[in-house]
Amino acid sequence: MAVCVAVITKENYPLYISNIPAANELKFHYTVHTSLDVVEEKLSAVGKTASDLRELYLGLLYPTEDYKVYGYVANTKVKFVIVIDSSNTSFRDNEIRSMFRKLHTAYTDVMCNPFYTPGDPIRSKTFDNVISSMMMQVC
Amino acid sequence: MLRTESTKINLMRPLGQPALACAGYRWRENYYSHQRRGGYNIGVRIIEDFLARTNVGRCHDFRETADVISKNAFKLYLGVTPTVTNWSPAGDEFSLQLDSNPLAEFVELPDNHTGLSYSSLLCGVLRGALEMVQMAVDVRIVQDTLQGDLQTELRLRFLRRIEESMPAGEE
Amino acid sequence: MEREGVRMADEALFEFLHMEVISYIFKSLEKDDSDNGKCTAKLEGMGFRVGQGLVERFTRDIPRFKDELDIMKFVCKDFWAGIFKKQVDNLRTNHQGVYVLQDNRFRLLTQISAGKQYMEHAPKFLAFTCGLVRGALSNLGVNSIVTAEVSLLPACKFQVMMQRA
């Protein structure tokens, strides 16, 4: 399914990045980093146009030759990025949307763990499991 | 109960928990004694609320008490009905088994607190509430999902009936 | 209580716990002989963390906010109702970053009996909520200072002053 999933704070530093294959880490970090500019651009449009983005799901941020990068920003400005392999053409928008919902819900649960300090990197088995369920369903 | 919009109802679920959880977190230095004492004080107060709201009468035996705790009290306050099981032959000791523990729903213990018995507040609440209805009961957690067990199990042991005249109050 | 397949803790539990937390914190004060402000700050800090977490959950299913006023309306309606089972009765603003939220029957004050002799205890019962509001706003990206005042129990006013960067 997804080849990379990232959670980024409102201050633009990463709380969580997971990718397969692990060897491509640098490349994915770069891809996610680049996508943040597109996220900012889309967000700054909120409230300025009539048909503005009131939905948390931002849709396709940008496609590269190999990947499609999708974005979602919660009301608390935490950003979620999901990278999908371009060769995987069977994906519908609704499926991406529901992946983001799942991701957001998992993040919310992390925030409600009293032992988690907001802003710290996410280290949670439950969260890891949700992410790996999103990353495995392909191949 | 005031409901503003039906769509918002599902948001109300976590209300008590973060507060509970947060309290637990701050108390961790002397976690158990504080949780038990804090729980005891809550139990002492909550019993009035419980009796007023449920019309439950005096229990004839410990088995009936077990049923009321599970089907009325847990159901009312935490929205779950634990299974009453593992009775001792003498009928003075039983277990409450919870498949899921609302108190610990979002909790993951950090590496430096892996052995923490997070929900000990519950023990205090039960002990405090039962004491107000003249029952001295020992309450322990014997299984805990946070410790990797499949369920959370509270063990309640009847100690003795408390004489009515005994003064009781906050610890 | 089973609604839409989710479990809910009874709201009375929140009140009992809130009371117990206050009494615990102020009891530890007597031992340490530290000042009152320290306890209030501790309660406020707990509220802050809870507010951060709750707002993440409460805003999960609603559209993006347009502006600051939009956020404050959310705090007065959905956020308040989610925690205190009623909305704020009145919201006023000077349009310069100061908001006053008035609750004519604030849930956490209804436990204290009306009467002047109890007035001095009221601030203890408001600190957690001040933190709750500040934590929620902070997680929504707005820094603020939140204070509370009581004139006649159980009514109270929360003042939110936005801190511009």
UniProtKB/TrEMBL annotation, chain A:
Statement: the UniProt record of this protein carries the keyword Transport: yes
GO cellular component: endoplasmic reticulum; Golgi apparatus; perinuclear region of cytoplasm; TRAPP complex
Annotated compartments: Cytoplasm, Perinuclear region; Endoplasmic reticulum; Golgi apparatus, cis-Golgi network; Golgi apparatus
Protein name: Trafficking protein particle complex subunit
InterPro entries hit by this protein: Longin-like_dom_sf, Sedlin, TRAPPC, TRAPPC2L
The species this protein was found in: Eptatretus burgeri
Keywords: Endoplasmic reticulum, ER-Golgi transport, Golgi apparatus, Transport
SMART domains according to UniProt: Sybindin (SM01399)
One record GO biological process: endoplasmic reticulum to Golgi vesicle-mediated transport
Keyword GTP-binding recorded: no
Oligomeric and partner information: Part of the multisubunit transport protein particle (TRAPP) complex.
Family recorded in the similarity comment: Belongs to the TRAPP small subunits family. Sedlin subfamily.
Any Pfam family: Sedlin_N
From TrEMBL, chain B:
Chief localization: endoplasmic reticulum
A Pfam family hit: TRAPP
Cited InterPro entries: Bet3, NO_sig/Golgi_transp_ligand-bd, TRAPP_component
Coiled-coil zones: none
Domain of life the protein comes from: Eukaryota
Gene Ontology CC: endoplasmic reticulum; Golgi apparatus; TRAPP complex
Gene Ontology biological-process entries: Golgi vesicle transport
Localization, UniProt: Endoplasmic reticulum; Golgi apparatus, cis-Golgi network
CDD domains xref list: TRAPPC3_bet3
UniProt keyword annotations, A-Z: Endoplasmic reticulum, ER-Golgi transport, Golgi apparatus, Transport
Annotated family: Belongs to the TRAPP small subunits family. BET3 subfamily.
Function: May play a role in vesicular transport from endoplasmic reticulum to Golgi.
Protein name according to UniProt: Trafficking protein particle complex subunit 3
UniProtKB/TrEMBL annotation, chain C:
GO cellular component terms attached to this protein's record: cis-Golgi network; endoplasmic reticulum; trans-Golgi network; TRAPP complex
Keyword Endoplasmic reticulum in record: yes
Pfam families assigned: TRAPP (PF04051)
BP GO terms, sorted: endoplasmic reticulum to Golgi vesicle-mediated transport; nervous system development
Keywords, in A-Z order: Endoplasmic reticulum, Golgi apparatus, Neurogenesis
Main subcellular location of this protein, as a coarse class: endoplasmic reticulum
UniProt record similarity statement: Belongs to the TRAPP small subunits family. BET3 subfamily.
Job description of the protein: Component of a transport protein particle (TRAPP) complex that may function in specific stages of inter-organelle traffic. Specifically involved in the early development of neural circuitry, likely by controlling the frequency and amplitude of intracellular calcium transients implicated in the regulation of neuron differentiation and survival.
PANTHER family: GEO08327P1 (PTHR12817:SF0), TRAFFICKING PROTEIN PARTICLE COMPLEX SUBUNIT 6B (PTHR12817)
Protein name as annotated: Trafficking protein particle complex subunit 6B
Source organism: Eptatretus burgeri
